[in-house]
Structures are given as C-alpha cells and as structure tokens.
Amino acid sequence: MRSWSASDTVRLPGNGGPLRLHDTVTGTLRTTSPGPTARMYVCGITPYDAAHLGHAFTYLVFDLVNRVWRDAGHDVDYVQNITDIDDPLLERAEANGEDWRALAEREIEVFRADMAELRVLPPRSFVGVVESIDLIVELIERIRACGAAYDLDGDIYFAAESAPRFGEVSGLDREEMLELFAERGGDPQREGKKDPLDWLLWRAERPGEPAWETSLGRGRPGWHVECSAISLHELGVGFDLNGGGTDLVFPHHEMGAAEARCAIGTGPHAQLYSHVAMVGLGGEKMSKSRGNLVFVSRLRAQGADPMAVRTAMLGHHYREPWDWSDAELTAAAERLERWRAAAALPSGPDAMPVLHRIREALADDLDTASALAELDSWAAAALAGGAGDTSAPVLVRDTADTLLGLRL
After folding, report:
1. Given Cys at both, which of 24, 154, 235, 272 links 204, Cβ 3.0 to 4.6 Å?
2. CATH 1.20.120.640 fits 303-318+325-404, yes or no
3. Each residue's pLDDT tens digit in the chain (408 positions)?
4. Closest Cα to residue 246, out of 285, 188, 294, 201?
C-alpha cells in the first residue's frame, strides 16, 4: 500500500543522545538501545473514519521517537498497518450504503493527507490487512502447528491457556482482562470456547461478508493476528518498539505478543512497548463509539494551520490524558506565530544551547513541554532585540523542523 510523502529534514550539528521511554511491561523508563537500524511498529487505524485527534496524537508521538532516533545517528525502519477489513468498517459501509472497499480507500487517502500536513514522517512500509491475507494465514498455520489453536464451528481460536506468559504486556488480572475484552471487540460470552479469554484468529465466512479462499477455509482474519503477522514479516522477532494508544495494551498487544511467542518459539515479540494516553473532549475520551470526535481533516478544512494543530498536541506529554478545546488551538497558533516572527529576524541569541536542551528534553521520555519552552525563551529574547548571531534563526528553524516536526 502506498504511504504518504516525506517532509524534508536537515542534519543538525552533532548528534542527540540515547532515547529513554516508558515501557508498559516493566512500568519503568528504559533507555532504548537499537542497533544501526531501529525497528518500530505502530498500529494503524481502521479506515471507516479518518484520523481524529486521538489518532493524530499517537502518530505524532511515535514520529518524535523516529526523529530522536534519527538525530542520534540511527536509521529507522518504521512499519504501520491499516485494518482495511474488520467489523466496524463493514458496519459503517452498510450504514452508508456503499462498498466497504470504496469507504476504506477514501478514508485512507484522507489519513495520508492528514499525516503529510502534520509532517509525520511516513513509514517505510504501510501495509493493509487485505494485501496481507497470505501472511496472516501462514502465521495462523504456525500457531495451529504448535497446538495453540482450535476450531469452533469453522472459526479458529487461540487458546489462552497455551500462552504461559499471558499477561506479560498488560500486567492485568483475569477479571480486568475479561472486562476489557468484552469492551474492546472480544467475545467472552461465546458458547463453546474453552476459555472466555480465547480470541478469534480466523472468522469463517458469513453470508454477505467478504471472504478469501485459503488453506483455513473461506473467511477473513481476526483483529490481533494481523499485526503479529505483519510486524514479524516486516521487522522480524524482537524489534525495538511496539507502539499504539493505551487502549491497545489489552487485548490487542497482549494477544499479539502471545501469538508471536507461540509462532516463533523464542524471545519477546518486541523489546519495548510504549503507549500513548487518550485525548478527550468535554471530559470524555474521544472515541468513535461516543461520536465526540475532532477530525484533523475538518480542522484543516476550517482553515487551521496544521503546524498549530501539531503545536497544540506537542504541548502535552504523551503519557498524560488531556482534553482538546478550541482554546488549545488558538493558544497554539499564537505561540507558533511568535516563534515564526523571531525565526524570521536577521539575527538572534546563540541557538546552540537551544538545540542542546531540546535534544535533552526529547531524549528524556519525550518531554515536549520543556522542548517548547526552549523555543518560547529563545523567541522572547530574539524579539526583545539587541545584538545577535546571524546563524541563530536558521538553526532554530532547523531544530524545530528536524526534532519537533514544526515548520517555522
């Protein structure tokens, strides 16, 4: 599947330091230690709507990871999926009276445009489920071969009892798992399952639903197995970072980790799991089920500067839930204009300390608030006037662009 266009970045003087991130599995800050190429997988959208601000915040966060790693001298192999076949997509297409493929194609194109306008660096591989059916079937066959799968009326389930490390990602107890599984697309009440926590790997064909002819029979994949198959194929076992929103910790990443361990027989699926807090509106989590969504594409259509949208999001730490408001965008636009006015001056205060401190802030668990405060301080000093360095505005512009993804 085609990705989106990449924005240019400038090589900054020197190199940034190693990145520390919060690891969901251990609950601690860990220093990432990728090799020459850092490998990162981030779960993508289900395209029955384009990106709302909760999605955009997640992809912005992992865009920062990408930028910090690159600034530290690593190449980055970034992979992202698109769930272009799933129940919510089919339900929305039926409600709209349109073909599910046309709906997915349209919303994926809006998503691409949103990401490009927000200056999110594109993944090397942007992969849809539909184009990955063979990979997914192959993984399910491997899970079957290790004895972890069973058939139920033509459907294929993963037996949770076959995963001795089940719970390693989320750290949840059984009751918490059951509650979240029911809320997040699971079927704990289905009769005939060996355990309510067993999850669907392959859904046998139902009347009126799309299906593919495979060695498993006619049908389509369950949800979690798509990311296991795509990530293992594209990045291999034990890649550096698996990311997404906090709503993916369980069941999605927990069950994906179990599938991968079963299929590969060794090591963790990913070295580190990192998750982004939810964005709310009016005190409630922004979600499609509630209908309280703010879409990036609609903000752009209303004339919002994508860099102001990005600035507003950068003002929040990725592990802290926060609420979007019109006031957020207004304040961010004003802040951005001050930076731009200062960066347009013929000279300004020495910018090397700014570069150094922004690097330090981002390497420390993506402390974006401190990074933006450095831009505020430099801009205030520059706008106050006085003698300055003619190279400073250029370095500030390059630093904001390369490290923060902000075009000043």
Report:
1. 154
2. yes
3. 999 998 888 999 999 999 999 999 999 999 999 999 999 999 999 999 878 999 999 999 999 999 999 999 999 999 999 999 999 999 999 999 999 999 999 999 999 999 999 999 999 999 999 999 999 999 999 999 999 999 999 999 999 999 999 999 999 999 999 999 999 999 999 999 999 999 999 999 999 999 999 999 999 999 999 999 999 999 999 999 999 999 999 999 999 999 999 998 877 999 999 999 999 987 777 666 677 789 999 999 999 999 999 999 999 999 999 999 999 999 999 999 999 999 999 999 999 999 999 999 999 999 999 999 999 999 999 999 877 899 999 999 999 999 999 999
4. 285
- For the entire predicted model, the pTM comes to 0.96
Cα atoms found within 13 Å of the Cα of residue 318, Cβ hemisphere only: 28
Distance CA 283, CA 87 (A): 28
Domains of the chain: which residue ranges? Answer: 20-280, 303-318+325-404
